[in-house]
């Protein structure tokens, strides 16, 4: 029988007006990979904070290896043997990679921190993740994906017996994700327990063996074998009803219509070369590629955030020289829902009404630039109802909303401006199953109403669900595109061939090639 490392008994945590945890139970055993699942607001983050000493429970108890334990701080949790990789990165930007990795257990010499001795253990942790980074490089210079890997390496350095991973793959490429899975399996084989929190159920079933599901602060499934449950079972437990696949209303695209956006042999200062693509009215064109392919950077160049050095951008049939997102919106009607909603998508410390109407102040302004508060409220309320944004009131700060509702606010501000072309970058990263389906329906319906959409996503299943055409990028270049027939295995096979720079087969050989690539595609997509 496996050793029980950490156990929760009837945990209760109450905040003003909210019972965040209501009798939660959890049992974490040595050598297991345990999935902790639930929708946004189900209590997962609160439970993680209780297990890592950030919050003290208001009821119930914790035991460590069978003995009662009281975790009064994150440092005390770390010393007990509990580590965590938070979804929101907890790195010091001005510190080096090595300093961040060894921060909680820095090497010392004669009572002083030994900076030179940091390099070796940091490199060992990075090597375990298969990551090649300069340990002396400041963290602020790293990409989001690289910072996530440094955060994970930091947790490895503490040699935790229980390691909590909160959405660890949100910023990772499929290859980086698979390397992380290998590390997770090795940790479990050594006798650790890894707690895996994710909204990507395909990843959960790929790496986990036990599962706890929270709903409304309660454990609706507690420390059960995952093999005893199907994908639909788990979704039904999370949302409180049997899961039904998203039904998209019929939609067609007029391929003969003039493109709203056309890139013709575009090159950029960021390294893109000879990029050509078109987006037509009511069409969803997907940009797919691994982290570092240059998809977001290409869009930012089109919006004037980087220099275009060659080729031509045309919007509504006429050449466009865009120098700023403001010009892109007001002159060409282009909106951009960024992947980084907390830093670029919403003003966290500003009310929802201001977040939604910021793009239309010019339109609402009266004499001397005065903006009517009533008109602001009318515009914001209409979009809150249309998008189903769950709020306490329009005066509530955006930072108080869940991630999914923040993303809806970010989208709402562009819809308020009557955008004529919408770029959506990683729309469902970090949102739960129900919210993801709602976003898919929303994007689909916007296109059905004639809005052209350029969709960037690292979620291949999401791409196959939504895109009419999938443009595949690697190394800042377009490798090809595929018309989407929404057969996941066939589409993923074709996309993976393009990523690995293998030519699309002839029609006669297509079926055989698709079959041969199915296993490869499934492995890469997690």
TrEMBL record:
It holds the Pfam family ABC_tran. Residues 507-518 have a biased composition (Low complexity). It is a peripheral membrane protein. Residues 507-526 are annotated as: Disordered. Residues 6-241, 248-500 form the ABC transporter domain. Gene3D superfamilies: P-loop containing nucleotide triphosphate hydrolases. SUPFAM superfamilies: P-loop containing nucleoside triphosphate hydrolases (SSF52540). This is Sugar ABC transporter ATP-binding protein. The lineage of its organism: Bacteria, Bacillati, Actinomycetota, Actinomycetes, Kitasatosporales.
């Amino acid at each position: 029988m496996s050793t029980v490392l950490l156990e929760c008994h009837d945990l209760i945590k109450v905040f003003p007006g909210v019972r965040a945890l209501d009798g939660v139970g959890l049992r974490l055993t040595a050598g297991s990979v345990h999935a902790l699942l639930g929708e946004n607001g189900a209590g997962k983050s609160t439970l993680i904070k209780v297990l890592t000493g950030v919050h003290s429970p208001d009821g119930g108890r914790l035991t460590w290896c069978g003995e009662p334990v009281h975790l009064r701080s994150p440092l005390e949790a770390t010393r007990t043997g509990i580590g965590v990789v938070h979804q929101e990165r907890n790195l010091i930007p001005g510190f080096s990679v090595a300093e961040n990795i060894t921060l909680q257990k820095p090497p010392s010499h004669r009572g002083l921190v030994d900076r030179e001795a940091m390099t070796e253990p940091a490199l060992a942790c990075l090597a375990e993740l298969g990551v090649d980074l300069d340990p002396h490089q400041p963290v602020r210079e790293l990409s989001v994906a690289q910072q996530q890997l440094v955060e994970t390496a930091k947790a490895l350095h503490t040699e935790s017996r229980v390691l909590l991973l909160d959405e660890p793959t949100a910023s990772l490429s499929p290859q980086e994700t698979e390397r992380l899975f290998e590390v997770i399996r090795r940790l479990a084989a050594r006798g650790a327990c890894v707690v895996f929190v994710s909204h990507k159920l395909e990843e959960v079933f790929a790496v986990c063996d036990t599962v706890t599901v929270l709903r409304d602060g309660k454990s609706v499934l507690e420390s059960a074998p995952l093999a005893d449950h199907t994908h639909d079972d788990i979704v039904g437990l999370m949302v409180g009803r049997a899961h039904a696949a998203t039904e998209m209303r019929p939609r067609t695209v007029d391929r003969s219509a003039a493109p709203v956006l056309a890139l013709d042999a575009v090159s950029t200062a960021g390294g893109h070369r000879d990029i050509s693509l078109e987006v037509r009215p009511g069409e969803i064109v997907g940009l797919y590629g691994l982290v570092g392919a240059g998809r977001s950077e290409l869009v930012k160049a089109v919006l004037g955030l980087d220099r275009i050095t060659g080729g031509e951008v045309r919007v509504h049939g006429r050449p466009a020289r865009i120098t700023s997102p403001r010009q892109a919106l007001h002159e060409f009607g282009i909106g951009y829902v960024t992947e980084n909603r907390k830093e670029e998508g919403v003003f966290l410390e500003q009310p929802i009404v201001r977040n939604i109407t910021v793009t239309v102040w010019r339109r609402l302004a009266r004499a001397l630039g005065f903006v009517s508060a009533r008109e602001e409220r009318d515009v914001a309320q209409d979009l809150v109802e249309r998008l189903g944004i769950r709020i306490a009131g329009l005066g509530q700060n955006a930072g108080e909303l869940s991630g999914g509702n923040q993303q809806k606010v970010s989208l709402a501000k562009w819809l308020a401006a009557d955008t004529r072309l919408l770029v959506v970058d990683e729309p469902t990263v970090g949102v739960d199953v129900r919210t993801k389906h709602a976003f898919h329906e929303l994007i689909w319906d916007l296109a059905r109403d004639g809005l052209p959409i350029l969709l960037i996503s690292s979620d291949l299943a999401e791409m196959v669900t939504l895109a009419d055409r999938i443009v595949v990028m690697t190394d800042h270049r377009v490798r090809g595109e595929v018309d989407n027939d929404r057969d996941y295995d066939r589409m993923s096979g074709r996309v993976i061939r393009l990523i690995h720079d293998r030519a699309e087969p002839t029609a006669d050989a297509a079926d055989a090639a698709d079959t041969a690539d199915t296993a490869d595609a499934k492995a890469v997509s997690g």
